[in-house]
Amino acid sequence: MLSIRGQVLALAVIILSIILAELSIKTLVIRPVVVNYRGELISAEIIQLSRIYVANRSRGGKADMNYLLQRLLEYNRSLNLGFPNITFDDVGIFFFLNTSDSYGKGAYVIVWNLRFREFNYTVIFNVTWCFEKSGYYIKDRDGLQIIYVNYTLFYVHEYYAPQWGRIVIFPMIYSESADILLKGDGIWFV
Q: Exposed/middle/buried for 16, CB within 10 Å: 0-12, 13-18, 19+?
């Protein structure tokens, strides 16, 4: 059995530990940290915006990248997604085209420099195509014999972002007026 002094000391230690526990609970303030996610969503939106631009321009449209960019930024600000403030100066658009009757090649390359407070990174959208005349064939259309020119076409999309590296896609090609046959890996007979 403890002496009176020991009992008082034990009681004092218990009371002190209760007081310290109470104080630590009252002074403990939860401070959640909100992290601005800089992930795949931003890069994917940039790639999709590039696809819209190239699809419109390749059909003779007059898409304005600055207008598309402003619409994207407004939408992302309305959702408070932490999208970086991009200006048209942060975007490099390069177009190359060289064609003749028997051979041709071209490319759209769009380079985005995204500047965040913490870091910067680059997203690249690249569409490349080349074609070569590979012969002729005759097709009967409504009783008429029509001579068609046959081309071999290579068509590829490449997307690069630091979140996923390099992605290569061979998009499908459709046409109601042309005969199109997929050979594989972006090679088509048109």
A: exposed
Longest dimension (CA), the chain: 120
- CA torsion through residues 116, 88, 124, 46, sign: positive
Q: What is the pLDDT of residues 128-165, one digit of tens each?
A: 999 999 999 888 888 888 888 999 999 999 999 998 89
The domain locations on the chain are 36-189
CA dist 141 and 137 (Å) reads 13
Helices (H) and strands (E) in the chain, counts: 3, 7
- φ/ψ of residue 82, rounded to 5: 75, 30
HSE-CB of 34 using CA atoms within 13 angstroms: 4
Query: How far is 40 from 2, CA to CA, in rounded Å?
Result: 67
**Helix or strand holding residue 138 (H, E):** strand 120-141
